[in-house]
């Protein structure tokens, strides 16, 4: 693998047909990784990262796994291109497009509980038939992942799907850890959380949001309260796609 490092200035970086690890560093950078199975790290700044051909891994910010209470990241654009890609969200208002292939949208060090004017990460082309959400779960591997932001709801350890899953009417949900609500839309994520029974901190609710006009993923942090952390901008209604527990992976 070829290693390429940028500077702390804003710059344009173009990869080769080989597999590379590219660290753009600080600055508002544009990276075209080219062919090959590449690793691209946006680091600081608001970056444009294009994986292009190959099975690529794109990091919006850094690879450091640290939960944060305040947003310090840029607003990045990640485009995987053709191939089975991994796109890793940061804490900014990122836009992620997987492109053709079986893609994974990772919330590795994204904090789902950010407040204020921060908008959710936007996913432009999620396809429940082949794509997955991946959540960095706290304490899944003991001290190795103690800084994860999400509660571990894995069925069988590292890389496991959601242990309990529900898709249907809000009134019929009852304590499942991942819920997809299909019968109505809500004004915000807390209204969605209040509509279901026995929700707990760490639960993930997928619902139709009136404000965004599309499907939202929200993280429950307390009774009847949740934070929106991801928007599926290509999905207007949860009934358009058939989600399953295998779309929600904990690692």
TrEMBL record:
- Primary residence: secreted
Record's superkingdom? Bacteria
The UniProt entry, under InterPro entries, shows: Hemolysn_Ca-bd (IPR001343), RTX_toxin/Mannuronan_C5-epim (IPR050557), Serralysin-like_metalloprot_C (IPR011049)
Q: Where in the cell is it found?
A: Secreted
* Keyword line: Secreted
**GO terms assigned for molecular function:** calcium ion binding
Record Pfam families: HemolysinCabind (PF00353)
For this record, an example GO cellular component is: extracellular region
Q: Record's PANTHER family?
A: S-LAYER PROTEIN (PTHR38340)
Query: What is this protein identified as?
Result: Calcium-binding protein
